[in-house]
Amino acid sequence: MAISQELSFPLNDAQKILRNEKECDLDRRELELRKDQDALKDQRIVNLEKELDLSKQEIVLKDKMLEIKDMEILATRRALEDMTQVTDRSLKLAETSKPKSNWQLLGLAAVVLFVAGLVIGGL
Question: Which end of the chain is less enclosed by CB atoms within 10 A, N or C?
């Protein structure tokens, strides 16, 4: 024997129950949307933190590059100072040694310039 029981509600009560059910469904959807938004915000925060770390690393690398350039400039200045001393010594030797022709002096100057070019070009 099957028992069948019909529930009957007054119309106002049925409408209230339906309205409450719809509101609960909307609340569940809103809750899910907020959870999704929170997950997206969390992912954005993680991405921004990674971007910040990369920016910091980039700054460190740029600082190191500037240090290297400063070292190159210093080395070039030292090389030029050394070349000035070499040139001065060469000229003094040329003055104190036996008289030489202009061609020999030009050859000596060319050698000094060649060495200076190698030193500067090597940096």
Answer: N
Residue 80 phi/psi, 5-degree rounding, is -65, -40
Per the document, the length of the chain is 123
User: By C-alpha distance, which of 91, 92, 95, 98 is closest to 112?
Assistant: 91
pLDDT confidence bin for 122, thresholds 50/70/90: low
CA angle at 61 for the pair 55 and 65, rounded to the nearest 5°: 140
31 pLDDT more than 70: yes
Local structure of residue 20 (DSSP, 8 states): H
Q: pTM of this prediction?
A: 0.45
Output the CA–CA distances (angstroms, integers) from residue 65 to 53, 79, 122, in the order listed.
18, 21, 18
Tell me whether residue 105 is exposed, middle or buried, using C-beta atoms within 10 angstroms of its C-beta: 0 to 12, 13 to 18, 19 or more: middle
